[in-house]
Amino acid sequence: MAEPVGDKGEVPQPESTSHPTTSDAKPTTEAVASPSNTPAKRNAFTELMAPKPKAPISQAPQSMASKASQIVRGVWRGALIEYIEHPERFPDKVLRVTANTVLIKDAFPKATIHLLLLPRSPAHYLLHPHTAFADPAFLAMMREEAAVGARLAAAELARRLGSFSASNRARDEAMGKGKGGGAASDRDGSESELPLPAGRDYAAEIRVGTHAHPSMAHLHVHIISRDMRSERARHRKHYNSFTTPFFVPLADYPLGEDDVRRETGFQNANLKRELVCWRCGKEFGNRFAELKRHLEEEFEAWKKE
Amino acid sequence: MAEPVGDKGEVPQPESTSHPTTSDAKPTTEAVASPSNTPAKRNAFTELMAPKPKAPISQAPQSMASKASQIVRGVWRGALIEYIEHPERFPDKVLRVTANTVLIKDAFPKATIHLLLLPRSPAHYLLHPHTAFADPAFLAMMREEAAVGARLAAAELARRLGSFSASNRARDEAMGKGKGGGAASDRDGSESELPLPAGRDYAAEIRVGTHAHPSMAHLHVHIISRDMRSERARHRKHYNSFTTPFFVPLADYPLGEDDVRRETGFQNANLKRELVCWRCGKEFGNRFAELKRHLEEEFEAWKKE
DNA sequence: TATTCCGATAGTGAC
DNA sequence: GTCACTATCGGAATGAG
């Protein structure tokens, strides 16, 4: 989960001067940072920046939302508010800012790609995801933004895995690119006269959804690659929270009133349940370290697909 | 618990050539090592060496005992056989050798002083202590040797703590020794004309007994100082095995047939029970590390008594 | 279901 | 009730002018 870092000296300003809908930040549609410090070159992330501005989705009364916000300010549960209110302070973390959302890199990524989409609406950002996504307009907006985030994630995944991908290499060779270097983009290919191999569908390796019981107070949607290979994935719960029904795909919202995934007992059992490889289904009981080693092997095979 | 060390290249000889009662070792009454590498100087340990030889206590049939011995040879449970059969190989560990016993320093001492007394009789050394000490002659022999070991232990404790002991300092000053250096001996004092302060009773700080369920196969009697201060005391069981009725004083043998200390359930509970400071009775629940820190403080007070 | 630190608990293998 | 190694499990604190 992302947390603000490297801003020890800065104290969050009182809510009266820093509300996002009356923000003191720069224009909200600005791309704050390119992900890889590659200057002006073509880049999967930068290509998708600067979408059309839209009106903020909520104009809920400031006083009420701010009061709730105040409760979690300055404690770990409320750390995400810093990105929501001051995205410009985190150029290394923030990938995209709109009037309604902030897209960041998770500070403790649990997979090769792990982004968080944060809504900026005070009327929504402290709601439980099950509640917030009962609002159709809000859900639609978040889905739209999550789709953008997922494309960014897929493009970045392509950049990272492209040189290893068998299906992409076939495509690259058909295009006369040769073996070296990653394929920076796998989108379209319509300029070619001959039918090209489709190339790897990196988007299919990206999953978008929430945790059934988030610990961070502010609503966040995970945009994460499937591999679950990360140094920061250190506990059974880390793994199970993404590989069991504890992870609720954004596509599944709004949840039915009787959806079993609302039940705390069910979800606690999901977090505690025995470990299973997401890719091959092999069971690892409580042997997390062994699963980790196995995931390294699976990663090698997965990235070559 | 002591184990042979530094003899990786040496394979235990077949029992037929190395039986202690038909030993190939040097004369069994020889003092193998002085404890502190102090050359020929007067020393608490060396003073008590070289007791009168006695006849070995057992002449049990070799074949039977050797068969049993063979079972635990070469595995960790049988490691003590090396000291019994080849005490001369461990000059740094062995303090005293007689026809009937070997006295060694525990390789993993659980207190400032921690010795083991090992009987050499194959008819006894694989028996459970409760069984072995039902033999009055064997018990008498072991008590006699344990008393020697306890005196050695007390003398060594005096050497280590003497300079910190308030009661000993009073005595030393009455004898005109001044403050510096440890008192090498606190025994008698009868040469003086004036009544001297008694000096600290170090023997009272030494406890002698067995574990109710030993893990090492060969019978061993612990001779250990009360402090339980040691880097090698690392587990709850280490501590409880010496500070609960799991520790059976040699003086309590032979145990009555209905002695509760024979009961496995009782003893397992002793090993698992909550931690209590042996000196002040303070309770530490399962907080072993906290107990360890507390024992450091108790040690400072205890050594100054 | 935030992380991090510390420490208790559990299983194994060892000649 | 042997040790030593690895790992799992469990609680507590957590920022900061």
From TrEMBL, chains A, B:
Biological process terms in GO annotation: single strand break repair
One GO location term (cellular component): cytoplasm
Key words of the record: Cytoplasm, DNA damage, DNA repair, DNA-binding, Hydrolase, Metal-binding, Nucleus, Zinc, Zinc-finger
Name of the featured protein: Aprataxin-like protein
Functional summary from the UniProt entry: DNA-binding protein involved in single-strand DNA break repair, double-strand DNA break repair and base excision repair. Resolves abortive DNA ligation intermediates formed either at base excision sites, or when DNA ligases attempt to repair non-ligatable breaks induced by reactive oxygen species. Catalyzes the release of adenylate groups covalently linked to 5'-phosphate termini, resulting in the production of 5'-phosphate termini that can be efficiently rejoined.
Documented EC number(s): 3.6.1.71, 3.6.1.72
InterPro entries attached to this UniProt entry: Histidine_triad_CS, HIT-like, HIT-like_sf, Znf-C2HE
Organism: Chaetomium fimeti
Polar residues bias spans: 14-26
Class of enzymatic activity (EC top level): hydrolase
Domain Aprataxin C2HE/C2H2/C2HC zinc finger residues, every copy: 243-300
Domain of life: Eukaryota
